[in-house]
Specification:
five-stranded antiparallel beta sheet, alpha/beta, eight-stranded mixed beta sheet, binds zinc ion, about 425 residues, 2 domains, Alkaline Phosphatase, subunit A
């Protein structure tokens, strides 16, 4: 019987002690009998996703948990987001995360999300923006696609492009839209900055009198009269997991960024109806999809975004509820997969503090249950309990070799 593994990543689940929870972390405060069961039967530890004290982005952390050296391979968020949204990013392309936003006549941002414009309206705008033709002499093509609400992705394709350019998005309201500039004074970066500034200008001209915006203004809604760009990136050049470990791997995630990371790692992306990337997601549908995917794969990454969303909103109690739903997923997995042939690893991609609303550099808990693991004395799944476990304190990129060693997929070093 071949051995398999589910890597269950709860985005931003780890936290610091919270005053409103009697100085427990949300994990410690949650009812979590199934997570505890995994800790109790498994081997536990804590992980520094990138390095001790370094607050990781979800993209870099997921790369690390898949065994890649994020410090070396990470090449910007834009390309990963575009790939995860189903937009091709070829070598040489530069991709961006974009927002439909609202600006006043002085180009000051009034609403960075254009009133969280609906998917339908955004798609209509995107369709017209896609028809824009840039000057032929620029020798560049682009793909623009709206994704969820105000969010969109943009890919530039042509020769001599560079991702070393600044954002047009000032990052907050009441500030002026920024001119895109080269960050390294190279000719390619200057050219790319110029192209993006010109394209943004063309976008604005189309958006100004677009029927969707006329309709929005009529109803007192903020018009989506500008596209803000940020996070210029290129596609990272990774060896797929299939090549490194000889495994078939699948990803179950709603968040485009995580899907993008899994795509560059050569994983199959599984779509799940009802998976939204929010606290209202269909938790059990995702767990069910993971069990299903495991039938034809050796490794399934199961990602849930909800705990991170609650943390960024500063909602500790909601985070506790989300974790209790995550515990239900863990219960479903324990029920459906046999721990005699399947490894169940549960972790978070980073700590997100409900007190600060930010990703923090504190380590995250890890528990691995499955055949022949050196079960330790840890009986509960949380930040402080797992710190006493047999895995000790490891780096994010150590996790995949540890799992693959259990699966018999790592190579001997030496004779
Ligand atoms: Zn994350």
């Amino acid at each position: 019987m071949s051995l398999k593994a589910i890597l269950f990543i709860a985005d931003g689940m780890a936290d610091r002690p919270v005053k409103d929870l009697n100085w427990k972390t949300p994990l410690e405060a949650a009812r979590r009998s199934s997570l505890n069961q995994i800790a109790k039967t498994g081997v536990c530890g804590i992980i520094d996703p990138i390095a001790p004290g370094v607050p990781p982005g979800s993209d870099a952390a997921t790369l690390a948990l898949l065994g890649y050296n994020a410090l070396k391979v990470y090449s910007g968020r834009g390309a990963l987001e575009a790939l995860g949204s189903g937009v091709k990013v070829l070598p040489g392309d530069v991709a961006f995360r974009c927002n439909f936003a609202t600006v006043n006549q002085k180009s000051v941002v009034i609403d960075r999300r254009a009133g969280r414009i609906s998917n339908e309206d955004a798609a209509k705008l995107a369709r017209n923006l896609s028809k824009i033709k840039l000057r032929r002499s620029l020798n560049v093509d682009f793909v623009f696609k709206s994704t969820i609400q105000h969010r969109a992705v943009l890919t530039l394709r042509g020769s001599k492009l560079s991702a070393a350019i600044s954002d047009s998005d000032p990052g907050k309201a009441d500030e002026k839209v920024l001119e895109v500039k080269s960050l390294d004074n190279s000719l390619n970066a200057e050219r790319t900055a110029k192209i993006l500034n010109e394209l943004s200008h063309e976008f604005q001209k189309v958006l100004k009198n677009h029927p969707v915006n006329e309709e929005r203004i009529k109803h007192g809604l903020p018009p989506a009269n500008i596209v803000l760009c940020r996070g210029a990136g290129t596609t990272p050049n990774l060896k797929p997991l299939s090549e490194i470990y000889g495994i078939k791997a699948a990803c179950i995630a709603a968040a485009p960024l995580v899907r993008g990371v899994c795509k560059v790692a050569g994983m199959k992306l599984v779509d799940v109806k009802g998976a939204t990337g929010t606290p209202q997601t269909d938790y059990i549908a995702k767990a069910r999809a993971a069990v299903q995917a495991l039938k034809s794969c050796d490794l399934v990454l199961l990602h849930v975004k909800a705990a991170d969303v609650a943390s960024h909103d500063g909602k500790a109690k909601q985070k506790v509820e989300v974790i209790e739903n995550i515990d239900r997923m863990a219960g479903y997995l324990l029920d459906k997969v046999g721990l005699d042939s399947t490894y169940l690893a549960v972790t978070a991609d980073h700590t997100t503090s409900t007190a600060t609303g930010n990703h923090e550099g504190d380590p995250v808990p890890i528990a691995i249950a499955g055949p022949y693991v050196r079960c330790d004395d840890v009986e509960k799944y949380d930040e402080r309990s797992c710190a006493k476990g047999g895995l000790g304190r490891i780096r994010g990129l150590d996790l995949m070799p540890i799992l693959m060693n259990f699966l018999g997929r790592t190579k001997k070093f030496g004779a």
